[in-house]
Amino acid sequence: MTALSVKQINKYFYKPVDFHVLKDISFEVEKGEFVAIMGKSGSGKSTLLYLLSTMDTDYEGSICMNGSTITGLKPDQLARYRNEHIGFVFQFHYLLPEFTVLDNVMLPALKLKKKSKEEIEHEAIRLLNLLDIKDQAPKVASKISGGQQQRVALARALINSPDIVMGDEPTGNLDSQNSQIVFDILRELARDEGQTIIAVTHDDEFAAKCDRIIELEDGELVS
Amino acid sequence: MNVNQKIATTLLTYRLRQLLVAVLSVTFGISMYVAMNSFMAGVNNIQTEITFTSMPHIKIYNELSAEITPILSGPEDPGAILMVNNQRNIRYTEGIKNADAIKKELSQMTPVVGVAAQVNQNVFIRNGVSKASATLSGIETLNENQVFNSSEYMVEGDLYELDRRSNGIILGTGLAQNIGVGMGATVYVSNSEGMSKAFKVIGLIETGANAADRSRALVSIQTARQFFSKNRSYATDIMVSVRDYAKAASIAGDISGLTNYKVEAWQEGNSQLDAANLLRDILAISVSLTIMVVAGFGIYNIMNMTVNEKIREIAILKAMGFNGGDVIEIFLTQSVVIGFIGGLIGLVFGNIIIRIIDNIPFNIATLSTLPVDYRTSDYLLAFCFGMIITFLAGYLPARKASRIDPVEILRG
């Protein structure tokens, strides 16, 4: 089953000079696949990821996820779609520093309002337990270590059981031990729960362990 | 509490000092609004009160008509010239003839709360060699008190003593000082016909209106009628007080249908009082609104800073699926909460300031402390303006936050 299909994507930057970033990109990703997007800096890999994330809507071509076209949806519809179907992990954790670890994880689910608060809390604790940071749950997010913060961010990305998890250098800021933990979790998810993972990385070791590598060079798909 | 409000309260309570500063700026604005307007209302009230101690809301008197009807119509022959020498406009009747009937009719009108007949005449008052001109008013003590609250302004003696002593006279404090008399002294009053009568000073009155205090002498109306050789129901003026003095002009219009005498509302010829009240109100409102707008800028500044500081968190919220409306709600909730708390404290604080002003000694005219007025409408208006201003001041940064493009921020 196809989780993601990208057709004839073209993307231009107009500032500071006109620049053709992505050229006729087309590919498909199967459900449960763990895909790494690689390329040199400036090759357009992050730009591609943000198009897939539905946050950047200024492009030509079309993107389909789980059979529904997301190209051309209104901003509010896209926000709702992201909330329900996509999870994000960034190079920096971007946790809300005023909130506790538990609240940070629960926020996207509270927004979605599909479950009761108790169920959401239960699910959040389960995820934190899975990531081995359950004991940090009541602490304020700014008071835990960098590796732990990134794991909290991962738990937050997973709270709504998204179809696709996207990562922008998810391990880029972590030491090898933490990066191994994050990778293993993602790997497990793809295998056991059928979630699709798409991660931008320039870490060859990380990429080597993925199911498939999509490589970009100067905005063109190489492999 | 939904998730947006939860985020708003968490953001708000995390930085208590910043919250305190924002709340204080609203508190300051609102308490100043309440204080300034209550004070101005107090000043306006005392001004009107002083004015109406000697001036009635509506006065009825016999006026010499300014319209002169020609005694001869124009000549039929166009070649003839009409000349009337020494033409005069002569008043045939003095005073109000059927004062009792008019009084009776007036007291049946609903907006009228008091009717008092007076006999007023210019006289000379002498004490030995010192003399002064004065207006001698023959008054009906009970009715007079109803219209002017005169007994409250008695410095010495009792107003009702006039009814018991036909040779008693009450002098304005300024007048008494002018001719150098005090309580119990005997003064001689002479009228325009040259008649003179001795009176005993049985009271002193001070209303705060200087001009009146320097020229006023009160006797009972029967004494005045006798002194000026007039009949039993003679009066020169009928003074009317109404429930709402602002409506005096329209009530005067109704009264003038009842009688041919001149009916004059206080606004006629005293528009400067009306204007002064209005100007004071405009001044108070514009100054206090300015203070509130400045408080609004304070909130705007703080919220703007918060949005700039939280720009990455806003981006991540949007990435997680919060839309523009959610972001506006999160930030607008914060400023509305600030406005609400600041507003409530401001109302309490404004009330405290007003109570303090109310106790500041101020011994001029009949005042002993600074005048204030406790009006609910001031508090309601202050709170409404405060909420509107915080809403606007919070909306602009919130809208800015909602327009943040998460891609731009998250890509770094």
Q: What composes the largest sheet of chain B?
A: 6 strands, mixed, barrel
Form type of chain A:
globular
The count of β-strands of chain B is 10
CATH topology of chain A: Rossmann fold
- Stretches of chain B where pLDDT falls below 50 for ≥5 residues? none
Determine the mean pLDDT of chain B. 87
Number of helices of chain A: 7
Structural class of chain A: alpha/beta
Classify the helix fraction of chain B into a percent range. 40-55%
| Helix/strand order of chain B, N-terminal first | HHEHEEHEHEHEEHEHEHEHHHHH
Distance between the termini of chain A: 21 Å
Largest sheet: spatial strand order of chain B: 2-3-8-5-7-6
The largest sheet of chain A, given as strand count, sense and whether it forms a barrel, is: 6 strands, mixed
Number of strands of chain A: 10
Mind sketching the topology for me?
The complex is a heterodimer of chains A (223) and B (412).
Chain A: E1 2-13, E2 19-30, E3 34-38, H1 45-52, E4 60-65, E5 68-69, H2 75-85, E6 86-89, H3 101-112, H4 117-130, H5 146-158, E7 164-168, H6 176-192, E8 196-200, H7 204-208, E9 212-217, E10 220-221
Parallel strand pairs in A: 3-8, 3-9, 6-7, 7-8
Antiparallel strand pairs in A: 1-2, 1-4, 4-5, 9-10
Chain B: H1 3-14, H2 16-54, E1 58-61, H3 99-107, E2 112-127, E3 130-139, H4 141-148, E4 154-157, H5 161-164, E5 168-172, H6 173-179, E6 186-190, E7 196-205, H7 210-213, E8 216-220, H8 221-227, E9 237-242, H9 248-255, E10 262-265, H10 271-309, H11 311-320, H12 324-358, H13 376-402, H14 406-410
Parallel strand pairs in B: 3-8, 5-7
Antiparallel strand pairs in B: 1-9, 1-10, 2-3, 2-6, 2-9, 4-7, 5-8, 6-7
Helix pairs in contact in B: 1-12, 2-10, 2-12, 2-13, 10-13, 12-13
